[in-house]
Amino acid sequence: MDAVQILGYLGALSVGVVLGLVGSGGSIITIPILTYLFHMSPITTTAYSLFVVGTSASVGAVNKLKKGLVDFKIAVVFAIPAFISVYIVRKYLLPIIPFEIVTINDFVITRDMGIMVFFAIIMLCSSISMIWKRELSTNINVFSGNNFPLLILAGIVIGILTGIVGIGGGFLIIPTLVLLLKLPMKKAVATSLFIIAIKSIIGFIGDLDNVEINWHFLLRFTIISILGIFLGIYLSSFIKGEKLKKYFGWMVLLVSFGILFKELFA
Question: Is the confidence at residue 246, as pLDDT, over 60?
Answer without folding.
Answer: yes
